[in-house]
Write the structure tokens for this entry.
Amino acid sequence: MKRILAPVENVRSALHSLGIDEDKADWIIDLFECVDAGRSDALAMPCFHFNLYATLKQEEVLITVFAFWQSVVTCSDTNSKEEQLALGAIRSVYFMAQGFGLTKLVACIELWWEQTLEIHNTTIWMVA
């Protein structure tokens, strides 16, 4: 199976836009596997549970996962398998955030989904 990568700077930028400060963002990025992707470094979702010792709050874990998949969408080809997987993962994060009552994150994902409507052409709660 091909590993899905997201550029380090895209993930860092997404974390900042979601309210994660610079020091915490650097620490979170260190939890990922960093891969040489040619012109720049990229992050791969680790093969293990990256919050094993509960060092991140539940909301921070979901913000991190959303930032990663948001970055995958940004750098993927339109209608590619990677883009489709990323959109599905984002919907999953959205529904988990709803279930945990993380209203700020839910609102951020809804806004991002609305702003990227041309990619998926559906509302977030609809089955694609």
Remarks:
- Strands lie at 5-7, 33-36, 41-44.
- Residues 5-120 form one domain.
- The chain is about 55% helix and 10% strand.
- The CA atoms of residues 51 and 61 lie 8 Å apart.
